[in-house]
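Discussion board: Methods & Data

I've been asked by a reviewer to show the raw model output for two of the constructs in my manuscript, not just the figures. I'm not sure how much to include, so I'm pasting the format here to get opinions. Each protein appears as its amino acid sequence followed by a line of discrete structure tokens. Is this the kind of thing reviewers expect to see in a supplement, or should I convert it first? Here is construct A:
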Amino acid sequence: MSKAGVVLKQVLETYGIGQSELAKAMGLRRSSVHSWVKEQSDPASNAILEIRDALEKINPAAAEEFMRLWLDRSEN
């Protein structure tokens, strides 16, 4: 699976954001976010930006951290 699920889980835990809260901000069901966090499926490439945008609405620092971690090449 992709790095996105690992990074998303870390950011949600660090900033105390629930999967349901993120799903609501994205207009999705919680099960979609849950499958990403549990690395059962990968978010589509356009979903990465949607995750960022939703996190931005909830907590701008969380959005920034998500993108920083997702783009970090040292973990590849």
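Construct B, same format:
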Amino acid sequence: MNFEIIGNIQEIETIAVGGRIRDIMRLRKQYGYGHWRKLKGIATVRLADGRIGMAEVHWYEAHGIGKRKFKIKRFLD
């Protein structure tokens, strides 16, 4: 699903860190070693068809690498 995050992500929570992430080996192979964390938060998103709404988004993040692999888990409105 193609989407764009509009504005800031709010209510950010850490879900998993390091070895607790299921896809840690894929992340390291694709983006490199780092202190990987899986996070979730609430953001306003614009979908490919132009619709705008609030959604819970999940992503991976590592220091020096940045935010990667955003996905929408559920819509809130």
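Answer (T.O., handling editor elsewhere):
This is acceptable in a supplement if you add a one-line summary per construct. For B, something like: The helical segments are 24-31.
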